[in-house]
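Hi Q.,

Before the meeting this afternoon, I wanted you to have the methionine sulfoxide prediction in hand. No need to reply - just skim if you have a minute. The sequence and ligand are here:
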Amino acid sequence: MDKGKKEGRYLRLYAQIADLMVKSPDQTSKMATIAAILYNKMDYFFWCGFYRLDGSRLIVGPYQGPAACQILEGRGVCLASVEQKKTIIVPDVHSFPGHIACDSRSLSEIVVPVFDSTGKITAVLDVDSKEPASFDETDGFHLERIVGLLT
Ligand code: SME
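Predicted structure with the ligand bound:
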């Protein structure tokens, strides 16, 4: 998807998600709504969902797409995002040491940390694509803005 189209799509989705967040009573319903909207409106999103931080491991939360790993521990892109407290873009998952492959069809990935109001990470948003190098700074910027609606 070209940059202009991607920008426009994310801006429209942000407005739609922001409106629904006001009507969502808790974090689970908010996360489920974000995953559903992103997965259904961004055609290169093959898997899209949340992992919640539980001590030193991550437990799968609301998501859309093929069934995923239930628990992530010890390694992987999601835990790297938690440890580095920042968004990680992986153009080629096979080149990321320790990448956890929940589905061999995933070729590129972006992971965005979710912060609470005190600045602690509570979860991550993970998105996978079946194409290499699907994600760039535009995805990073807008997905960070969207998960900011959870805070
Ligand atoms: N690839 C992730 C695991 C989660 S799945 O992509 C849904 C990782 O390396 O942490």
